[in-house]
Specification:
Number of strands: 12
Number of domains: 1
Strand content: over 45%
Order of helices and strands: HEEEEEEHEEEEEE
Radius of gyration: 30 Å
């Protein structure tokens, strides 16, 4: 049997060994917290721009009817971790006529639906906007660069709907395409026709958590 002195010595040696082992093993670093989400203006490829707003200074782009994602309004989604969020403002398209308003024939109503698709054709979501026109003050904005009074275009965005859609982690570009248009004006009814404007989009943004940089080999 060990004497009391030997037992104490053994305990001291074991304790010293444990302390030495702890010194040699570096403490684990805590996992880095996920990057905070950031929101920024999206990179947009617009096949048919409308122009810049007089009031908002925003860039407005027609969303055309069609089924080919490559022909739509293309929006780049930066490399991201988890789902990203696509945000944009959606408007109806109206052709303003001062003469028709004065003659009491200015009333118009519109409903439009657009799709947000991945470039492989998968539907990720939809946006819709409905609005009515009675007078010039109903317009959301006027567009610079026209031949009308004040140098504005006759075509203008009408109504305003904020759209927010989740974008999967593996999607880095989406396309906006027109699906449905139901319009009623003094000239008759308007419907979606391939290649024709269905709606107008502006203020396109993306919110995402940036993907971590690639590991160095």
């Amino acid at each position: 049997m060990l004497s009391a002195r030997s037992t104490i010595l053994l305990i001291v040696l074991l304790a010293a060994s444990t302390v030495e082992a702890q010194r040699r093993t570096p403490p684990r670093k805590p996992a880095a917290p996920p990057a905070p989400p950031k929101q920024e203006a999206a990179k947009v490829t617009c096949p048919e721009p409308l122009g810049v707003g007089v009031k908002t200074k925003a860039s407005f782009c027609f969303v055309l009817a069609g089924r080919d994602p490559a022909a739509g309004v293309l929006v780049a989604i930066p490399p991201h971790t988890g789902e990203a969020t696509l945000l944009f403002d959606l408007h109806n398209r109206h052709t303003y006529s001062e003469e028709e308003v004065r003659a009491g024939r200015g009333f118009a109503t519109y409903s439009a639906v657009i799709g947000v698709l991945a470039l492989n054709g998968d539907l990720l979501g939809r946006g819709a906007v409905q609005s009515e026109f009675r007078k010039a003050g109903d317009l959301y904005d006027r567009i610079t660069g026209g031949a009308g009074p004040g140098g504005v275009k006759a075509v203008a965005p009408l109504g305003h709907e904020e759209v927010s859609l989740a974008i999967p982690a593996n999607v880095n570009e989406v396309s906006l395409l027109g699906e449905v248009l139901q319009g009623k004006t003094s000239a008759g009814r308007e419907n979606a026709a391939p290649g024709r404007p269905v709606a107008i989009v502006s203020n396109v943004r993306v919110e995402y958590r940036p993907a971590p940089p690639p590991r160095k080999r």
